[in-house]
Amino acid sequence: MNPNELLEATARIIRETVQCGPVAITRDTRAMDVRGWDSLSHTMILMNLEDGFGVRLPMERVLGLGTVGDLVDLVAELKVAS
Amino acid sequence: MSDPKRRVLVYGNCQGGWLAQTLRADPAVAERFAIVYLSDYTERPADHPINEPDFLASCAAVVWQTASTSKPPWFLSAVPAACRQIRYPTLWLKLLWPTYVVDPRNRPEPDFPWGRYPYGDRLVLKLLEQGVSLDDLPKRYVDTDLNTIVNLDRFTEMSLAELRFNDRQSDIAVTPYIERTFRQRKLFGTVNHPTFAILNRIYHGVASALLDQPVPVYPPLPGNAADILGSVETPLHPQIIAHFHLTWARPAMRWRYFSAFLTLGEYLRAYATFAPIPPGEPPPLWLARGRQAAEHQDLAEAQRILLEATCRYPAQSEFLHYLGLLLGRDGQLVEAEKVVRYALSLHPRVASLHCELGRLLLRQNFPDEAVRLFNEALRLDPAHQEARRQLVFLAGQPVVRALNAGAAQRSVT
Prior knowledge:
The complex is a heterodimer.
Chain A lengths: L2 H16 L23 H12 L5 H4 L5 H14 L1
Helix pairs in contact in A: 1-2, 1-4
Chain B lengths: L5 E7 L1 H12 L1 H6 E7 L19 E8 L17 E6 L10 E2 L18 E2 H8 L7 H7 L8 H17 L6 H7 L6 E3 L2 E2 L1 H16 L26 H6 L11 E3 L2 E3 L1 H10 L9 H13 L3 H14 L5 H12 L3 H14 L4 H13 L3 H14 L4 H11 L2 H15 L1
Parallel strand pairs in B: 1-2, 1-3, 3-4
Antiparallel strand pairs in B: 5-6, 7-8, 9-10
Helix pairs in contact in B: 1-7, 10-11, 10-12, 11-12, 12-13, 12-14, 13-14, 14-15, 15-16
């Protein structure tokens, strides 16, 4: 999966989890930019990313991330490591 | 003369609002500090003292709320080094509501600033999408294995890790208390609306830090002491109650939703149709909540609810009456008597209170006083059956026969 495909797959998981409809999600997108992506639904997004990509997200690292791009990079790193 | 009190800025969501209100109500804090609340809902509100040029310099402390998913306050870089900072965590408990989602149908309305259903449920939405009828919805909801929606163990693990992370960003840790207590006690009414039980931990930590000494564990009670923040509770899925072995919750219990007190099934049907439930907190709602707590053998919770209801509705006598009844049933006769006497001082013309006090005094072996109270109840309400029944019963008791005879003799002489 190349970086663009990873970004698109991440965006799809976020959209499906928060049921926000077809909004644009880029590397720079933050939670506050997406309707429904609040602090409470954040954990569910992380779980669905784990399920979708077959990785286990270390909470210590994931909770400090700011953008979708940060999330995508972490997932890419974990996928390579696995 | 200017106010010598230093200001303390309390910043955060509605939990911060409660904290500010509670700190203001604490005489020890209020004596030294003027508490100013700033909501984090609006960035840079126009009509707030924080816009004054020297506001932050005038603060002895800034108390601000942290969360794993939110940025530090926008004004933080302007806080002078001499100003103390006290950080407290945002309170939430995601693990009890793993199906939470922002419902796309929810929108602010004049009567519902946060929408009719600010706490959506992905399982309900999924069942509706599958065409499940309204009649079948509650059963299908309960029967669906939650682990097919979310891996409960991993979700719990992540939720707790996040809480611990929040603690580490704060000066007050609540996660050990949450982990220790959430099975035995209701700490949250919704995923992010805590009860007094846990808010008190935050208050205690902040007040102790401000005063540089430990404060009493129980603060002076503000208006919402017996309540959750907000006006709604989100019913728990029965599998969650079973999964975590929650002792305070039951699948058949009722949940407060604005002015209604609903079973899970009633709530699911209302939520599925997005039916508006009128806002408000009518007295019957409070009485029903008190009754449910009593039925669940939680006398302390019942007492908190009934006293809170009394404060909100001082013209209603039934809350104190019911509390007296509960305390009496619990064998706390002296406490029960105090409560009913207090109720009578507020409502001297309520026959059932006279009758209740009479019953309590009878149990404490004061039959003459009891008879007087039953008679007074009947004078106020000649149809009061319990007072009449008690008098009929007592008329057969030797001590009362003697009393009656004495009274008759005195009236002759």
